[in-house]
Amino acid sequence: MYRHEALLVENIAQHINRKLIPKLPSYTENLVGIASKVEEVNKFIGMGLNDVRFIGIWGMGGIGKTSIARAVYEAIQCKFQVPCFLENVGEASETKGGLVQVQRQLLSHLSISRNDFHNLYDGKKTIQNSLCRKKVLLVLDNVNDVNQLENLAGKQDWFGPGSRVIITTKDKHLLLNHGVDNIYEVGLLSQNEALHLFCLKAFKGDKPQEGYLDLSKEVVDYTGGLPLALEVLGSYLYGRNVDLWHSAVKNIRSAPPREIQDKLKISYESLGTMERAIFLDIACFFKGMKRDKVIDILENCGYSPQIIIQDLIDRSLITLDWVNNKLGMHDLLQEMGRNIVFQESPDEPGRRSRLWFKEDIDHVLTKNKVVTNISTIIG
């Protein structure tokens, strides 16, 4: 009986939810593929219900988490007493003033003047006491440490009835550790969506100009449906002639744009020593291999890899095909990892930690070149 009542309440709430949530704001018109993702997040919002909910938006760097959160926020903020969107929480926590300054920023956004505290404990108490009777919509964007959540949105009882806290992050375990109610995993764009977004940037239109279709498809395939890469490359190629496109496409594959690499590298740089090593091993050698086989190999190398592999999955750096039990990785992340190894010694393969290209292996083994840093060779 209780189960049926709960289902009925949820169905009613979803109906109210559809009635209460307005159309997407106009600025989202050029955000390709955003509408369906916002609709999925809105299912977790539960407008009309009086509980307090924490909702996570999770995915790899550059996939559009912030855009989705912003679109949801803009659409429903008018339904709350105190709305606040805090951008780049992780980055802001590392600047002068640290997390205490972010706490002050949160209260300042909410026009709450009681922000003269100087430590995290007092900040937590001030946030809780200021918001516990208010209906709050809070977006914590790009969170990278559970400590940030504990000091900005510690528990549901910090907020008044009907409040919603939306958290975007590249780390799923962070959300699980904080007891987030629902987690939405952001997927890559489909082929058609990716081509559409690319054309908006490269041609300022919905489709490729005459003579550019095949080149456009080649670039779209290269990006693997990652919005960041599509936008960067589309903007880079805008207004250039076909000859320059051919040259650019060739260069992109050998030297990816720094703006894309730097964005993806943020996740790698947050890893510990062992996590970095195993990520690079997967990027260089093990992508597409069965998980159990990879674990066996790494255990024989002295690692305890199971928890590290799960951590890399949670951080959106690798994927696991549950049907075939194979490890995967977005092509641009693999490219980033291999480029990290290449940059260890661009001119001398024997000084790199890993070799996987036959030409580099032959160069080292047949030319009697000095070998000082190689830990793994697979050819």
Automatic annotation (TrEMBL):
Keyword Repeat: yes
Keyword field: Leucine-rich repeat, Repeat
Gene3D superfamilies assigned to the protein according to its UniProt record, in alphabetical order: Helical domain of apoptotic protease-activating factors, P-loop containing nucleotide triphosphate hydrolases
Record domain NB-ARC: where: 38-205
GO biological process: defense response
Superkingdom of origin: Eukaryota
Start and end residues of each Disease resistance protein Roq1-like winged-helix domain: 275-344
InterPro entries, A to Z: Apaf_helical, Disease_R_plants, NB-ARC, P-loop_NTPase, WH_DNA-bd_sf, WHD_ROQ1-like
GO terms, molecular function: ADP binding
Protein name listed in UniProt: NBS-LRR type disease resistance protein
Organism from which the protein derives: Pisum sativum (Garden pea)
Taxonomic lineage of the native organism: Eukaryota, Viridiplantae, Streptophyta, Embryophyta, Tracheophyta
